[in-house]
Amino acid sequence: MFDDVNGYVNVKHKPYAYKRKTGGKYTSIYGQELEKITERFNPRDPNLFESDVPTETRFLIDAYGDSDEVSKNHRMAIIDLEVDSTHGYPNVENPKQKITAIALYDAASDHYYCFVLDEDGTITNEVKGNTTILAYLHEEDLLTAFMKKWRQVDPTIATGWNIDGFDFPYLHARLVALFGTDFASGLSPINICYWNKYKNKMTIAGVNCLDYLLLYKKYSGKNLPNYRLDTVAKEELKVGKVQFEGSLDNLKRTDIKKFIEYNLHDVILVKGMNDLLQFIELAQNICHVAHVGYEEFNIPSKFLEGALLTYLRRQHLIAPNKKIQSDEELAFGDGDDDDDEVGFVGAYVKDPIPGRYEWVCSADINSLYPSVIMSLNISPETKLGVIPDWNSENLIRKTQDKFTFFDEEYTYEAFSKAMVESNLSVSANGVVYDQNKVGCIPDILKKWFTERVEFKKKAKEASDAKNHAEEVFWNRRQQVQKILLNSLYGVLGLSIFRFYDLDNAAAVTLTGQEIIKTSAKYVNAKFNKRCDTKDKDYVIYIDTDSLYLDINSIALHEKIADIKPFAIKTIGAVSDELNDFYKVMMPRMFNSTDNRIKIAADVVASSAFWIVKKRYAMLKVYDMEKAKDIDKMEVKGLDVVRSSYPKKFRDFMSSVLNDILRGTNNKDLNAKVVAFKATMKDFNLEDVAKNTSVRFISNTEAKTNFNPPNRDPFCFIGGSTAQCKASLSYNDMLKKYELADTEPIMSGGKIKWVYLRGNPFGLDGLAFKDDGKDPKIIMDFITTYIDRTAIWNSELEKKLKAFYGALKWDIYSEEQATIDTFFIFDS
Description:
This protein is of the alpha+beta class. The protein is built from 26 helices and 28 strands. Helix content is 42%, strand content 18%. Strands 9-10-8-7-6-11-14 form a seven-stranded mixed β-sheet, with helices on both faces. A six-stranded antiparallel β-sheet has the order 21-22-15-23-24-25.
């Protein structure tokens, strides 16, 4: 164990579990009396309790269970590797390529190092400010010097961009290849270093490897076109990677100083992001609350189990062993935290009527699923049973329909009376819960909710007092609670979670569905009465916990001239009425005695545009939460900003969407589209080419090589992507025209590519590097055979037709035949 006070210590740990025993001094969450056992036992015995708790979690709870404080005295390092790719993309399983540079940041001394391979001896070692450049003629000397510095820095936390996916696996593999396993194990302060096939990453004992790429994906809450370091750094820091023309290998040969700058800058970007976002500190906080290792930050089932076990320990309660899965449950998946397909019904999303709407307002139920859990007291030990074919409407109407529960027959009226007398709640799928004692899951949610409110209050107090450090601390703490709250409901349906139960998981989501659908019915009833209409649907869209309402129809009916203040007032009033309604609805529908369902007005939009569900845009003009005016176009699910789009297409499609939201008519937009299409003949290749990266190895488990040594020119392996074929065609042309001096496209390299038509090689597409060094004969070939019509159809036509279809507009047609004819003869 590495302790922040005592350092590295060995502690003897004896596994233990609990078993039933009358008079035992321990108590399970179900109220059973237990005794502690330490003799040999089967960790997977379903009759035991907590015999299957992971050793690390068990030990951390035992050693530090009374404290959630983050350990001190950590030493952080950031690394970035550059590897020669002259002969192909570096392969961890066959690490033949040399490591050409390693950038290292030592946070303790605030110092940067670059260990660079300079085989021509052109660089002099230098120290400039807090940066040291160290050049080596041989890779072995570079790696030996790096390992010496690594041991001096002695990091407890290491980060970098994609260090799990590349840097550490390749570094370790290359060290093994050159020096042997013992030397490579020196990455660990206790010389234990290996590839962990279960975690699919390197285990470096004593070093917490926290990949900043994973941290960003986990905590940023942003859906970016891609998660390359350049894209994310520009998003967060407004600064990207060092730009250069050609390949990185070529940069090293022609401008080694810029190559060094490039290597160091990647580390600087990661440091800058953590200084701004503090995601490492956030992960530490979560893992200390949960009492799990830092590297479990990305696995909700792990850190939530740890958090619940810690909570139960403080309550002097013992958890059951994990449930042994049935064949039916196993069929639902392998229990991966990232599984999208689960064995129960998920959130409700209403199919909108496609089109453009004026004055749309939204309201969101706060933390719907955690609130459902608390309101119905959903927990493993409070679950009493399931009523088959349950119907909530029959409960409200108190029908005489009969059903059986625990071998007794009830009518809905009789059961309603029994529920009240016995203080039971019932979910939308008929699961009955005891409300006489708060269950462990709703209880910990209540604790986290209370703490989050307290932490937010302290953050505001610190902000008002201009105490930035305190404000950052409490904001991070409230963010920890938010992540815990929003993660818990999702793991109830994961078979690897200790408190997994499909009934409970479905109870949460189906009750959530019932609540949001009933909310929509309530709003429609109110609006229909207000507008003297019958059965008109004023709820344009529903997504999980959000209602999107047609306020414009009410404004028109009531002849409101200034709609914006009316919309603000109306959505606020609707939210207040719904909250009053929930006080009646929750007891009547579910017999909830602790209603936690609250809705809040969110956004006022002057217009909104739906294609289908999950794909829409809104022109927001007022933020209800912040009570301030805004003018912002928000796009959800509409693929108009994808990074592989040529910039001109991205800009054009965004402007089209903006025009639609701001009321441009069919005729004017037609003219704009036709005019833009006509200008395509003037666009340079770079303006219409797709931007992407390319891999010659498949992402599948088979790892198919699409560029084997025996591949014939202009012939491709089945399964090759379009960009892969386009890149291999470029390399084939280099061979055909005997252009040996031009560097080929490498797997992993960035490319541009276009569609082709009617060419001698029968190619559908061709790539180029756009580094100023593409051979003229290849660029002339592209210019001659580029298929601009195919590019238009692929990149814009389908999306424009989807827009026009949703609007029920006539598709642009002016001069279409002339333009198409022009494209055919344009070269």
